[in-house]
Each structure stands twice: as structure tokens, then as C-alpha cells.
């Protein structure tokens, strides 16, 4: 970003960013506030805002009406943000509080002109409360449906190795014969069942299937090639 040199250039940057704020209003949802400050007018610095209900601000609000514990504002006032040769500074991922005490996750971008003076601030404040409330509701529903102990261990019980073994066994069972008495066609049918369930997307599953069917891994690949050829033909399985 090129630093503006004149008051007119600063105004043009701010006017452009106003359109950015307006555009973001339509894509960010209702829980993220985006606010643009013209720092030349601290008593009414807010020149554009999306979702101002989060902090209770509107266009024309003063810069001091922002969130509590605003690290971006503190660095702006202290001059800590200034970096020689840079047209902007980003103060990211810090926690603030709304006027009613709601925790917010905030990021501020301070823009500087060619002389190093801050002239605008582009700030984002995200209200995570609704996400936390939704998480609580979802966890409550999950516990109600499957029970707390099952909900806590469900991901662990869905062990990939166990699932691979189950698919292989179900493929063999689909032929109605033990592997030792299967014909070539039976084994190909078992492989078709396994493939239909996505078994061969899992690494090392070809070797496991081959071991259970008493064939080589190259035979499994040959079966898969033939099954693909059957599928490609009109009327093929």
C-alpha cells in the first residue's frame, strides 16, 4: 500500500474503504462488527460501520465509544504501532469487551500517511458469544441423543482399523462363502462390495483385503481394473 501524501489522497483512501465496509456488511453475518475511523475527527471518527449493534455505535460515534481494553486504540495513542517505512500496522487477535461486558475478538489496522501520521483505522470486532451458545446447545442435544459417555468417546470408537476390518468381512460375507472356497468370480464380487464402500481409499487396505482373500495385492488391483471396465460398459454393474 502506497502512503498518501496529501489530505485529498487520505480522503480518497477513506472513501474507498467506506465501500469496503458496506460490501462486507452483506457477507460477514451478524456477529462481526467492521468499523472505519477517520482519525482526523476523533469526536465523530466512525465514518462507516457494519453491525454496529455489537458495540452500540453508529456513523458519527466518537473513537472513545469503542470496546473496552482496546489494544489497538492504546497503541495508537501511545505511538507504539509506528514502524518506519510502513504505511500500516496490524494489531491482531486481541480480546476486548463490549459496553455490556460481552467478550470480543478484535483486530485493528492503523493506516499512516507519507509523513508517518495515523489518519485512519479499520477495525474488526467479533462477538463469539453466539458461537459459544450454539456449541453448548449442540453438545446438549448430542448428550441427550447418545448419552454423555458415548458422545465423549464416539470419535475414538470409530477406529479406522476396525472399520477397515468390518468392510472386508462384510464384503466376504456378501458372497455367502468362506474365502477358502471362493471362486475367482466370488472374490471379485467381494472386492466390488469393498470398493463400493470406499475401502480402497484407505492406505494399506489393498494389502489387508488381499491377505483375507488369499490373493496377491496385484490381483486386487486387477479385480479393480476389471470392475472399472464393467462399470464403463453400457449396462455394466
Description:
It is a single chain. The chain is of the alpha+beta class. It folds into 2 domains: about 130 residues, Beta-Lactamase, CATH 3.30.450; about 70 residues, no CATH class. Helix content is about 45%, strand content about 20%. A 5-stranded antiparallel sheet has the order 2-1-5-4-3, with helices on both faces. Helix 3 crosses helix 4. The longest helix has 18 residues. The protein starts with 6 loop residues before the first helix and ends in a 5-residue tail after the last helix.
State the CATH superfamily name of the largest domain. Answer: PAS domain
Strand order of the largest sheet: 2-1-5-4-3
Helix content: 40-55%
Using the coordinates above, name the CATH class of the largest domain. Answer: Alpha Beta
Distance between the termini: 59 Å
Overall mean pLDDT score? 82
Q: What ranges have pLDDT less than 50 throughout 5 or more consecutive residues?
A: 149-158
Our Rg estimate from Cα atoms comes to 31 Å
CATH topology assignment of the largest domain: Beta-Lactamase
* Beta-strand segment tally: 5
Structural class designation = alpha+beta
**Architecture of the largest domain in CATH?**
2-Layer Sandwich
Count of individual helical segments: 8
Q: Biggest β-sheet: count, sense, barrel?
A: 5 strands, antiparallel
Q: Which percent band covers the strand fraction? A: 15-25%
Q: From N to C, what is the helix and strand string?
A: HEEHEEEHHHHHH
Q: What is the total domain count?
A: 2
Overall geometry:
elongated
